Amino acid sequence: MTTAAAPVPDTSFDNIPKDDKRITQGWTFYDWANSVYPLVITSSIFPIYWGAMVKQATNTDSGKSPVDFLGFQVPGSSLLTYAISAAFLLIALISPFLTALADFSGRKKLFMQIFCYLGAASCAALFFFTPDTLTISTFVFIAATIGFSGSIVFYNSYLPLISSEEKFDALSARGFSMGYIGSVVLLVLCLGLIMGHETLGLEEGFATRLAFLLTGIWWVGFAQIPFRALPADPGRPAGAVSDSGWLLNGFRELGKVWDQLQYLPNLKKFLLAYFTYNMGVQTVMYVATIFGDEELKLPSSALILTILLLQLVGIVGAYLFAKLSERIGNTRALSWSVFIWMLICVAGYYVQAGWSFYALASVIGLTMGAIQSLSRSTYSKIIPENTPNTAAFFSFFDVTEKLSIVIGTAVFGIIAQITGNMRNSILSLIVFFVLGLLFLFRLRGKKLREAPAPAGATLAPPPATPNVGIPASGR
Q1: Contact at 8 Å (CB) between 358 and 381?
Q2: Residue that wins the pLDDT comparison between 32 and 170
Q3: Maximum average pLDDT range among 26-40, 159-173, 212-226
Q4: pLDDT exceeds 50 at position 314
């Protein structure tokens, strides 16, 4: 039996205004700033350029050809996947520690800035990516991924600090929509640069690398808006940090969050649901370009057009499901979204190049924005209200997401390798959505937010009836 530590009284969060227009608008602009990374680097231009560099480095016509990486012969396409997995594993390991320190010291914004600058600088450094710099560019890509993922943890943790609970869904949806719009604007500019390289007197490879440089500049430039607008969070009150220093206090903070989870069964159930259905969602998002290229043999122009379609439809989906959650509740709206993803898996098994592919892409875009936005806002409604360690709670959320990506993409790759057909991998993802839907059903009709652990209580069975609830819209 473990004794839960008594919570430290803290009223300093009252000094952060809720629903301040300047602050909330500034917060959404970080979505506008950083969303260019997953669109330009993760999903569209960079994977295509990576394949071209592999072909040049190996003097072959296949992006799957083995390349030399630190003395090992690794298939080029696999190396990119391994780099993504390595980045997610690393950030999953370090983010809980860093967020605990950020909560204690009140430096969420500082840590958010550090990861932002790391990611933006790494994106810009990809300008120097050539066949001769493949190895070092792989590490630069990993650093960019870490920068993006790390900054999101601290960005998300601001949501319950700056917004009233009834506006979580709308503000979260607005942030995702800003991200979709901003990333589409930059992608169109980059495509114009690449497609018009002859008119501009540039080589195509040079124009593509300029797109990476522009991505870093866009990210760090527009990030200055939220950095100026967001308040410095108060952290812990004076005397909360013991003489043993920040290092041990960081680990103690994680321990306290873990202790609180024993008293928050609904939070654990939601994290389990999110972990399972997010395996399917993130895997589809990361392999969509590969599936279209290898399985459907779509040209690069069609793939990029599809990605643009996903972003635009995602804006509609985020707002549509935010309105739906107001009418039927968060978990019910999420359940419908997960059910649609189950149908997407079945349709993906049969889809062919042509109108059916674009129709399926539209449905994916509609539910892609919805499920990400609602997951973030629902989690904000479940964590204890006015908790002084929101970043530590959101680090659990972030680690859950990163580990689900690692497992989901690994399962996809293993099934594709065994069966020799990515369609089987797409169909198999339905298992993750079924499990996620079952876990969500365990939360329907319940008040999601529960009372925090009482001071001095032992971690015995959680209270039978939580005494802190939320409105029906959060159910």
Answers
A1: no
A2: 32
A3: 212-226
A4: yes
Phi and psi at 76, nearest 5°, equal -55, -45
Nearest to 337 by CA among 365, 361, 312, 358: 365
Please give the radius of gyration of the chain, using alpha carbons only, rounded to the nearest integer: 22
Cα–Cα distance measured from residue 156 to residue 99, given in angstroms and rounded to the nearest whole number: 12
Q: Are the CB atoms for 432 and 277 separated by under 8 Å?
A: yes
pTM of the model as a whole: 0.73
268 and 261 Cβ atoms separated by less than 8 Å: yes
pLDDT of residue 456: 42
CATH of domain 20-445+455-474: 1.20.1250.20
Among residues 222, 348, 331, 235, the alpha carbon closest in space to that of 292 is found at 348
Tokens encoding 198: 């002859």
**N-to-C CA span, the chain:** 31
Nearest in space to 399 (alpha carbons), one of 98, 142, 42, 2? 98
Residue 468 pLDDT more than 50?
Answer: no
d(C-alpha 230, C-alpha 225), whole Å: 9
320 with 337: CB under 8 angstroms? no
